[in-house]
Queue: 4 jobs
Job 1
Amino acid sequence: MMKIALFGATGRVGRVIMQNALQDGHEIQALIRDPDGIDAHPKVTIIKGDASNKKSVFNTINGCDAVISALGTDKNDALTRSMIHILPAMRANSISKIITIGTAGILDSKKEPGKFRFHSKESNRRLSTAAEDHCRAFLMLDQSSMNWTIVCPTYLPDGERIGEYRTEMNTLPDSPSSISMYDTGDFAYSLLHKDKYSKTRVGLTY
């Protein structure tokens, strides 16, 4: 069994990941801003704090075997500010495995090689603030020595658990549609024991 440092445990995808991990008997150390937002569980250690705070991040990662981040972004560069602390904390604990939830915008464009999707005509978003934050987090991981994977889902409705989806390394599968939070969480969690997508962004869609 493993002890997993989980960021974003109260989010939609984070909750799915946590449920999977607990069903398999793993222990979780979850960093939570508001502890009332998560149910008590004997295998969950709740650490109250913020992912932009160095001490909170180090306390969450201390003694763990792997890191999973399902943190969302905001207008204050939440992902960049958290990754600044996550990587040193992982090194301090001799942890190499990290799985994060990204966005399809940071995948490589097929139509305009050399560009990210959010920089290309493939993206319909007028504002790129969120994608820029995701991109900075990706570049920090890419320049690190970590065994990282970034799961990059398309449009992410609550949806339902279907169990069948398409993946593609570093790009988005052709004719993408959506992917539910359940299948996104299931896929991300499945990577905990796989190295197939090591040091890779993975496009995920139905």
Job 2
Amino acid sequence: MNAQSHAETRRIFIALAPPDDAKAELERALGPAYEAYPRMRWNRIEDWHITLAFLGEVPAAAAALLGPPLAELAAAHPPLRLALRGGGHFDERVLWSGIDGDLDGLHVLAAEVRALVKECGIAFEGRPLRPHLTLARARRGDLASAVEAAAGLADFTGRPWRTERLHLVGSNFGRGPGPIHYRDIESWNLGGEDRILHEHAL
């Protein structure tokens, strides 16, 4: 993909993010797993997020259409009170931490976000919402690391926190086998009209 075609599309999703101190709590709880399973592909802490709608690769022009309606949605939606709790795994490969707190409100917000995306004419993965924070992925053939690391998080309960912003996030793809990083395109305060513009293009 040349530079021009890369600029014409974005791989994006809409998400919430825990505050730094809540992430620091979980980071401390993960200390033994970091040491025991260094070969797992650990996500960067600054990339931890709770996905509400994954849109995949979309034209940049279509992504730009989402800004104004997402700003209105965020301003009209009150903050949620959530917490990080426990851990689990998908298919013995993907390690995650669970979400606790106002899950009904979280599902309502996700449904509103997904309805907005459809109204904008953008197709996306319509999988049922399973609130979680993806932490790491085990390498192929490794059927123990994620399972054992999840067991180590069984008793973890983080402090409650308020969701501050709704984030429109883009993937920053490298040109090699390294990890995928994420960057905010824009974010908006929940329950307010303040808009934060992080970048114009990925």
Job 3
Amino acid sequence: MTNNLLVNRAAVTASAIVVAVVEFALLHSVAGVDVAVTSGSSTRQVTVAAVVVAAAVAALAGWALLAALERATNRSRVWWTSIAVAVLLLSLVVGPTGGVGAAAKATLALLHLSVGLILILGLPRSRPAGANR
């Protein structure tokens, strides 16, 4: 992997994390949305640390999958984008449903959607022009 590709993909990853943190901060701190989720019979608050970790894990998993597909096939962008869109749709169905209240569910959906779209649009396009894989 070239240095430019690493830098570009790291920038996309960082962008997804920063956007998630800014959205969370604005909605939680400024708008006063209480972002809490239920898991079984317990309820827990979503923290900025949880937002950072979730966005970073999603970004790094997407990056790793894309890198593996680039080594395996000439159609890596098509495969990766298809898988990434399916994962985003699944995360939108499963993730926000655990939110406590409509505002928390909407916030969680926005976070999932923002991170997913940044990664889907940014990661595969960070490959240098002219690279076939």
Job 4
Amino acid sequence: MTSNPTHGVDALIQGARLLGRRELRPFIIVPLLINLVLFIALTAVMLSQLGGLAEYLNSLLAHEPVNTETMSWWRAILAKGAAWAANVFQWLAWLIAIAVVILFLFVYGYLFGIITNIIAAPFNGFLAEKVEELLTGQAPPAEPMLSMVWRTIGRELRKLVYFIGWGLVIFVIAMLTSWTVFIPAIMGGLWGAWCMAIQYVDYPLDNHQRPFDELKSVLMRRKLSSLSFGGAVMLAKMVPVLNIFVMPAAVAGGTVLWVDRLRRHGDPGAGRLLNDGRSQP
């Protein structure tokens, strides 16, 4: 089976559709309530920072004419030269402004995701378990609830350490190449998509108690499918209000991607995806 970027987007869409299934509703309500509370709190913080952001962008994009009448001849030449350069490179100011807005939304979405994922990890594990049972007819191995709760929280902290560690490396490289503008943007987008793929495809693997290194190997086997899924989740998380509903859809979509595209053919139940109760070859 080949890696295809449409597979990842399709998995997220299927995951969103599965949220309407009656069997899954009890495992969706609590994560949604958690998301709603955190959304209100983080959005209030974000709105409180918009004033400072607007002032910065306005100063960056402002192009006020320079009055050289009271200046000496050489200062007037320098001032006119600086004004000319600012006018010529105004496009660069716009690029910087756009990058700042995107970074602001990215940080907002990323913080929202980190906090909600840690708090809602046990509920997401239950949701992924029920989605897999719905898709394949087979549930992951049973285990005591308390054991499952502690294991999922520990797994979230393991992922967080991974995200922070490699995130710092990506940040340093982005700073060293910031003069190119485009390289940091591409690196940041790919890294964000990779993080989202790891975050949400991990739940079905963790339910089978597969090691974290195996998760990375599974995603690398289907890079385009994994990155397109993670990229779609990342973009959806940047949209206020929509990000309330993204997490359960991403958990279900990650499970769909695992069952339908990422599992090896030798794994139990591989290739037996059911879509809305109908078999799919």
